[in-house]
Structures are given as C-alpha cells and as structure tokens.
Amino acid sequence: MIATLAAAAAAVFAGYVGYRAHLRDLETDRLRYTRGVHSWLAWDTTVEHGGTRLVIMNSGEAPIYDVMITVALDSREETAPHAGQTWLMLPPGHFVTQKDGHGWTFPEPADPQQFRPYTRSAKFAVVAMEFTDAVGTRWRRGKSGTLESRRADNPPRR
C-alpha cells in the first residue's frame, strides 16, 4: 500500500512538473512573438524633401490587434491613428504611416531600408506602443523599449 501511495504521489508530482514546463513553454513562445513588435519614427529617404514617417514592425507569425502608438512630434505627444482610437489589426510585416490633415494614414507595407530612424532626438520618438496579441493579452512597449503585459481589465481605448 505504501508503494502504491508513493507511486501515485510521484505521478501527481510528475504531472505538476510537466504542466509547469508546458506553461513556461507557452510563455516563452508568447514573449518571442511579442518581442518582434516595434515602432519608430524615421525620415523618408525615398522622396525629394523627405518627411517623418511612423514605421511599424510585426515580425511575429500572427496579426496584432487594437494597435495604438503615442509619438512625440517636435516634442508634442499625439496618438496614432487618432486620439482614443486604434488600428484594429496589423498583420505580420513592415508598415509605414504618415501624418496627413486628418490624422495618420492607414499603415501600408514598406521596406524599412527606405527610412532612416531618428536616433538622437527625443523630440521625434515613439513614446509608447500598445497592442493585443493573438491570445488576447494586452502589451505595452514604453519609451525605453521595455515590453510589459497589461492587465486584462484594462481594455484598449476605441
């Protein structure tokens, strides 16, 4: 009887360890996916007089959702696409958007080599980027580039 109890305890423990390893693997996959989502402001080198563009990269394997990016343009903060709104979905790839008279344009596929990032000025920078992954977790990448998950009860603004 003691051997049976010991075997049962070992089986429960092995199941618990396996379950924890599975959860750790899921978290590792999720972080690998979300670490490939970035945005930055850049100078467009493809047009004669250039211009500031917002470059967005999703190198994951799935779309991201409810994308909202806060940028500093000449030290004034504003939200893309518009204050209080989000881009509902952005598939994997590199995209670019620009400010026009109505806010920010729809993201279009782009070659990131055509854009020179602003790297020496806080006056032109991404302040924050928020998005939801395919699993439903809300993420925020701050000014320093740190990625953190947001609480589920803090939904994106639409």
Keywords:
single chain, 158 residues, alpha+beta, 2 domains, 6-stranded antiparallel sheet, 5-stranded antiparallel sheet, 1 helix
Give the secondary structure arrangement, pairings included.
Blueprint: H1 2-34, E1 37-44, E2 52-58, E3 64-73, E4 76-80, E5 87-90, E6 93-97, E7 99-100, E8 103-104, E9 108-109, E10 115-117, E11 124-132, E12 138-141, E13 147-149
Antiparallel strand pairs: 1-2, 1-10, 2-6, 3-4, 3-5, 3-11, 6-9, 7-8, 11-12, 12-13
What's the helical proportion of residues? 10-25%
Number of helices: 1
Task: Give the averaged pLDDT, no decimals.
Answer: 82
How many beta strands in the DSSP annotation? 13
Q: What portion of the residues fall into strands of 2 or more residues? A: 35-45%
Ends apart, CA distance between termini: 61 Å
Biggest sheet statistics? 6 strands, antiparallel
Rg over CA atoms, rounded to whole Å, is 21 Å
Q: Which structural class should the secondary elements be placed in? A: alpha+beta
SSE string, helix = H, strand = E? HEEEEEEEEEEEEE
Unreliable stretches (pLDDT < 50, length at least 5) are none
How many discrete domains?
A: 2
Shape: elongated
